[in-house]
Amino acid sequence: MAGGKGGKKEPTKSKSHSARADLQFPVGRIRRLLKSGNYAQRISATAPVYLAAALEYLCAEILELAGKAAQLTRKSGRTCRINPRHLLLAIRKDNELNQLLSHVTISQGGVIPNIHEDLIPKNKKSKKSSQDSQSQEY
């Protein structure tokens, strides 16, 4: 029978919401937390997917920049490890991430290296060269 109902179908294996959306962050857990957090009376089916995708993008961006900062400070011949200092340097050097996380304190991150311009000593010329340049003709 062409197109009949008699054929056996293979049992399909269930896929998680994260696998369907091709995400690493847990969509089901975010949905559960959104529902139990009393943010709204109803939560749409796409809201946790969108939130998981946004969080995954932010984490990937921060980890990419922190990995580059870790490679710059790496000692030769050693493996690279991201620590809180590298996270702080990555976030504070990127304008958009710095604006987003401006009120965040990262524990064990330290401070951004910065020396005010007024504290840097200026090159002083010798007295002879300054007298020569101030000569006047009458």
What share of residues is helical? 40-55%
The ordered string of helix (H) and strand (E) elements is HHHHHH
β content, as a range? under 5%
Question: Helical region count?
Answer: 6
- Radius of gyration, taken over Cα atoms and rounded to an integer in Å: 29 Å
Q: Count of DSSP E strands?
A: 0
The biggest beta sheet, please? none
Give the overall form: elongated
How far is the N terminus from the C terminus? 118 Å
Low-confidence stretches: none
Mean pLDDT: 86
**Global structural class:** mainly alpha
Walk me through what this model shows:
With 138 residues, the chain is mostly helical. It has six helices and no strands. The model has no long low-confidence stretch (mean pLDDT 86).
